Amino acid sequence: MARDDRRVVYPIDPANTALVSVDIQVGFGRDSWEPVPHADAAVRNFIEAAQAWREIGGTVIHVHVAYTPDRGPTGRMTDFISEAGRALAADSPATAFYQGVVEPGELLVRKTTFGAVASSDLLAQLQARKFDTAVVAGLTTPICVQTTVDGLSMSGIKVILLEDACASQAIGRFSAEEAHRAAVDRMGYLFAQVETTAEFIARVKALRQPLKAAS
Q1: For the chain, how big is the Rg over CA atoms in Å?
Q2: Domain span at residue 156?
Q3: Per-residue pLDDT, 7
Q4: Domain CATH code at residue 164
Q5: Rounded to an integer, what distance in angstroms lies between the CA atom of residue 160 and that of residue 20?
Q6: pTM metric for this prediction
């Protein structure tokens, strides 16, 4: 397949860009329901990115899962995780956000399967606010983050993935680190611009002076 191998770089602007977290919930962690050994580092990086983004007036949206009797898992999820509805129930400790992730007044978007575009109104929420770009981070890299990134990109949203604000579980023959890297590389191949939290924050800081001048 012929490809243009130049690195994709999407501009960011609080007027048309949202920072989107995916499932940054305590059920995904080193000793959690779904073991994600590097979740703590990913969460710390997301919190730093979110704080920088908020400081310039940026919008932060949090996609999450919290099942109820009338809104349980959808798709074929329970074929593979039969206990998902119970383990990730709205009243389960596993569905709590990590401390420091969400600030009052921020938009919460509840999904019912892995990908947010397939099972929530995330895309409609972005479109209603005239956002054409999403900066995405979360847990876990190859599952809920990747399926959400895929859906956003294929719907026309420009996606920037914060690679070190995501983390993975081990999958089959792949260690957590290998699964994370493979997912990041796959998304960067055709679905998203990939950058680190530090690179994102540096771009945010570069926006501060023009925004101050405009005010």
Answers
A1: 17
A2: 17-214
A3: 81
A4: 3.40.50.850
A5: 10
A6: 0.94
